[in-house]
Amino acid sequence: MREIVIGIVASMFFAVTFILNRSMELSGGSWLWSSSLRFLFMVPFLVIIVLIRHNLKQVLQEMLKQPFQWICWSFFGFVLFYAPLTYAASYGPGWLVAGTWQMTIVAGTLLGPLFFEKVQTNSGIIKVRNKIPIGSLCISMLILIGVVLIQLQKADSLTLSEALIGVMPVVLAAFAYPLGNRKMMEVCGGRLDTFQRVLGMTLASLPFWLGISAYGFITVGSPSSDQVLQSFIVAICSGLIATTLFFIATDRVKNHQGKLAAVEATQSTEVLFVIIGEVLLLSTPLPTGWATSGLIIIVAGILLHSYNTKKINIEQDKQIQFYEQKEQQL
């Protein structure tokens, strides 16, 4: 399926984030610049894209309607997502951070009850609170086991405090990212497309990135030319190319739940791309022993998650039919 190939290529570009963040840390670059420069570089490109599509005015109007909501959830979705990831890159190889990042699937499952789903019935649209599906939770716990296993390879060389510093920021990011983005989708209410929403969130989070940049300039000085170049590459590869490719793939199969689940499962391959990239570019040793087992478990768990998603969608369709039949009886 062509869409699966597109999804895998998108994952390859997403992997650039973890590889180059680690590269910048190894060369002495500060995480303060690694995190802020990506989003500062994204602004002009996103503005140009939205301008070409003649949608910039609508973005600004939506932001002015609910400025607090935009600032708050953009902070969760972007700042509390990316800053902790770049910070964690200081304490371990990219594949370790990428593997731990898969906990975002666990987070997404647990955050479900905080959101409502709109269901179309004959009498109109009703809101149904999402529930934590037991099957998805079990698969998420399997992924969590894999995350724990990949930490064991560095357990002998890390103190408890170092391990917590390297892992806990990623856990924070794993929960902040789906929370911020889902809340922003609620705020937008389908009125903005993907590029508009990403631009709006980038603009809303800009004061925080400027503040982080200022703090970085005061504490560590200006970034090196290599760090600026690598941050620019991350902004292009991950912030623009990867996101665009992934949404193209999912949009093509959005009406076929089985194919959509298969495309979404391609995200698990980014861990493998990170391992290959770091071995080739940074001479990072291959994961061994328990870490290899953990990576296999993570990939298998994500594939199971996608398969289970298909079953959940079928159950939701049955639920919609139930509501419609009940209303017809009334």
Automatic annotation (TrEMBL):
**Chain segments annotated as transmembrane:** 5-24, 36-56, 68-89, 95-116, 132-152, 158-177, 198-218, 230-249, 261-282, 288-307
Checking InterPro entries in the record gives: EmrE
The answer on whether this UniProt entry bears the keyword Nucleus reads no
Stretches of the chain forming a coiled coil according to its record: none
Keyword Transmembrane attached: yes
Q: Which domain of life is it from?
A: Bacteria
Kindly state which keywords UniProt assigns to this record, in alphabetical order: Membrane, Transmembrane, Transmembrane helix
Pfam families in UniProt: EmrE
| Entry protein name | Multidrug resistance efflux transporter family protein
Q: What organism does this protein naturally occur in?
A: Bacillus seohaeanensis
